[in-house]
């Protein structure tokens, strides 16, 4: 490489080696003077077991925060939370214009930027097929099929060549709502010459073509028409095609639709505003549920991923103020559990079945299809675009590795395996990883953001496993223990293996330890805390088999 030579680089900071938190950077220029754009800025959902007390995760954007004066814009491929969900939280650290289509822009404004304290993000609307120029980049939004309207690949043009960032996509000639993935549009890009494709890997391990949304719509129409009583359908609130399919199925058999859940209401409002629900009657409010005959109602519910505060979970627990189900009613899961959510979804299904409700999932009926391409669809994309280089993204290690083998089998000359933080030079020269930069995760903990090094999360995991013993000891300046130590146990069983009260085990361990220490040692608070901590943990382990966390505080009087 010639020092100071202009380079085109790709740097993922989220979504590569994991599902969710998508955030990718493209840089152009000499190393010391690169200009940058970001594609997507998404969030992920934290599992309670792995991240106790944390609901949301965001990519660590420290690298570009330090270079934000050179960040020219943030370009959104589509409005799923794993692509837009971090904007309201992280945008104040970047303060670059955000470009999105009308639907994504309106949904972002409605869902995230309407919350109290949300930043005043600079949003700029982009029309698919139009080109936007920022600095050395020219970007073109290319419509694709996906499970939300106005999804787009982005063709990124620079003096070094054209890079195609596919975003999330599939091939669906009958998507119900939204765009089709046009062979002509992508073949034209291939004819222009695609330097590199940065492509979705989610379903590369699955053979064939993904079924069409139209097929799901037909299944839903049959199920709803044949149902003898109430029907409730749960799906991703963002899936406007599925919402439309349910509404059309309901109308065909004289049923009314009731939409339940704030997320559902927001998407429906934006979808109507953008014309995706044209021709359908207004949906009813949830308080209409009990007044409508059982055979004349369909509910659209949030909570397809088992979220405990969503409408479906509340219905399954029988504590929703308006919606209730009885034996003979039907619930259709027009969704698939995201990895990590299976237990919560299964719990809701079991609760419903115990109530005599019939539950229908994609295990028995075609009530859900993925929005991502299977192998035969990817064959078509590679045939259309004929890229010189492939960089697999949007997937876990299994998906990325399989995608790399797949791309080589399609005759792609260069395949670069990336992970979050991999700085990849796409041009000039042979594409390769040239550096690794800081990347990682940030956690939304209450109203603050913490990073992976914060002690809160590992300490909470420890408390989940073995509880906490708290000991407070008063010692005067002569090394005399005053009164009885205050002892409490939290999250420990009441009794040990032989039936002895654990609180007594702790009290005895503290008393023995203090009695065995000289006045000189008792004057050393730090030494007392460490010695008592060690003694308590050992004593509890002997009768319980676990070592709890222990907090010892010496009060000097």
From TrEMBL:
Keywords: Exonuclease, Hydrolase, Metal-binding, Nuclease, RNA-binding, Zinc. It holds the Pfam family Lactamase_B. InterPro entries: Metallo-B-lactamas, RibonucZ/Hydroxyglut_hydro, RMMBL, RNase_J_2, RNase_J_b_CASP, RNase_J_C. Residues 20-220 form the Metallo-beta-lactamase domain. The keyword Nuclease applies. Transmembrane segments: none annotated. CDD domains: RNaseJ_MBL-fold. It comes from the Bacteria. This is MBL fold metallo-hydrolase. It comes from Methylobacterium oryzae. The lineage of its organism: Bacteria, Pseudomonadati, Pseudomonadota, Alphaproteobacteria, Hyphomicrobiales.
